[in-house]
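Hi R.,

Here's the chain you asked about this morning:
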Amino acid sequence: MRRQRKAKIVATLGPASTDIAVIRALFEAGADVFRLNFSHGTHDDHRARYDAVRQVEAETGRPIAVLADLQGPKLRIGTFAAGKVAVRTGDVFVLDSDPTPGDGTRVYLPHPELFQAAQPGQSLLIDDGKVRLAIESVTTGTITTRVANNGSLSDRKGVNVPDAVIPIPALTEKDRKDLDFALSLGADWIGLSFVQRPSDIVEAREIVGTRAGILSKIEKPAALQQLEEIVRVSDSVMVARGDLGVELPPERVPGVQKRILRVCRQLGKPVVIATQMLESMIDSPVPTRAEASDVASAIYEGADAVMLSAESANGRYPVQAVSMMNRIVTEVERDPLYRNLLDAQHETPLNTRQDAICAALREVTQIIGAAATVTYTSSGATALRAARERPCAPIVSITPNLEIARRLAIAWGIHSTVSPDVQSVDEMVEAATRAAVAEGYAAPGDQITIAAGMPFGQGGTTNLLRVAEVSASVVAAAPAKREAALA
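And here is the predicted structure, written out as tokens:
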């Protein structure tokens, strides 16, 4: 099965999409990556969904990526004696270290780190920004604020602090347990929530190692202060517009999204745009025109992937939501303006051998009108550098490593295949042409471009560019040799 588009779709699994028949339908409708949201559900729930994804993978013969999205250090207020209180503009409201249930004047704040980080003049946002509190003074165990707008507060609502870097670890105790479980399952990507600084990724990397890719979720303004450094130490990035849209003024979010996209393109890291993309399809079989435009805009801007959250996890129309997103992406990529915009946004290659080869690959592919670009990769690096260049031809990635093939499913334009390793350039050319034919990208007489690293089997050695013509003998042999390594 090959997609008729280059940008990818991430679909979140949940109560509406636990059954294997639904998961199979989501994949057939266009989902390339399935997200397990560890903010909700039990380990048994996630195991069942993971196993269903792997069954669909075996049935279809296509590598599918699984993203395990950790909850992260979510900050919350305590409880109220009445369960809910009203606050009005100008009221003084105190957050303190007293665990006694609160009232209309105070509430418990079970996060001592906030008392260290908070400063007069900063804001606290409660319940996704529905109530804004302006900090007037901070003492040991007490933050005194003034209410900036009428609203209500209730038990354990979330707290956002847009103006400060909170001295809390990137991984909570719950996250560490969830991470161990996700890695034991075999998750391909680990999503880190509320990343604030590069050290957050380094901390997670010490646990994850090379067992999965790390996807950093940009949802804190503090992360924007060290954005390039965060992207450099990450394997992929998500523009998580939910919390980002709470902590930043809404009018700033589109510009920030474009900035993150550009940095990720410069550094060759896949970027996912997420949150509220087709929100109305939780309850409606069709999206609003504004939502369709939002998805289209992300694709025009060059995003690697777009994501569905509640739409596919607990909405009434999960399959229709994926199908609609697939149709929008496909339609955008048919537009001649899309190619023009990709070329206009093309970034200067980095000063590395890998980027030099892949930049040349892009130029040669365009000049000769190659039917496909084939990358030989053991670590995924060659395929990702090729994807950074956004070539006109599809990228057929060949790897001997199933885990790498799955991980590449999140990246723009890459069609992953698994094949035994090769020992010589002649074997590489034969395997590349055979894969291009078997996957439906090339026919006799077509030319393909090939990028690889020598010696074969060593990651990060991209140093070879080859042009090959597909012969009739390769076409005849392809069906017999396509049985590859998913078994």
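One quick note: Residues 8-73+169-333 form a domain with the TIM Barrel fold (CATH 3.20.20.60).

Cheers,
M.
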